[in-house]
Amino acid sequence: MPPSMPNPKRRSPPASDERPRAAAAPRLRILFGHAIAIGPGKAELLERIAETGSISAAARRMGMSYRRAWLLVETMNQCFRRPLVETAKGGAGGGGARVSDLGLEVLARYRRMEQLAAEAAAEELGALLDLLAEAPAEPPR
Question: How do beta strands 85-88 and 96-99 pair?
Fold first, then answer.
């Protein structure tokens, strides 16, 4: 193909306003020693437990095992001064879980920190996104 003719197989990079900016955001994790005290997944788990009253139901909604959810709850409970999630043993009336007042406060503060971080990083994130190539293909399995 002559150099003056455009190559139909080659695509020009999309303009910056065509990029899926909503997919890119800072992800905040609060480290406590070697553990992540709270991060995006743990915050979602707290929200799901508050909605369902159950670690098991929250785990199902998130597509994770009960064991994984329980380990995340245990880590959160160990990282804070008081438990974020309180549990009741099963029995005739069934068990259950509730997000404690401290858990609700931690969740609200974490969500506010996420919002503040996103606002603070918005301009630099936009400039960084303009430098990115197209999203890579899914890795082979």
Answer: antiparallel
Q: How far apart are CA 74 and CA 77, in angstroms?
A: 5
CATH code for the structural domain at 28-117 = 1.10.10.10
Two tokens, residue 3:
């150099």
Is the CB of residue 47 less than 8 Å from the CB of residue 56?
no
The pTM assigned to this predicted structure is 0.76
Domains of the chain by residue range: 28-117
Residues 94, 102: contact at Cβ < 8 Å? no
Per-residue pLDDT of 96-111, as tens digits, reads 999 999 999 999 999 9
Instruction: Please compute, for residue 21, the number of CA atoms within 13 A of its CA located in the half-sphere on the CB side.
Output: 16
Q: How far is CA 136 from CA 3, 132, 133, 140, in A?
A: 28, 10, 8, 12
The Cα angle at residue 115 between residues 77 and 133, in degrees rounded to 5: 110
pLDDT (tens digit per residue) in 21-68? 546 778 999 999 999 999 999 999 999 999 999 999 999 999 999 999
